[in-house]
């Protein structure tokens, strides 16, 4: 998802592209990577919403 939204597929680079902090010393810890991934996911979804991604338009009858 970050590849599509931010042009980055590496977690550390995606976080930085999203304006998030990323601690290379903590990287590759299952807990740290999972937390960063969850925050990144929320940032991408919220960014999409801010850009007008929701509500999705309903199909119109013709």
TrEMBL record:
Q: Which GO terms describe its molecular function?
A: nucleic acid binding
Which protein are we looking at? Ribonuclease T
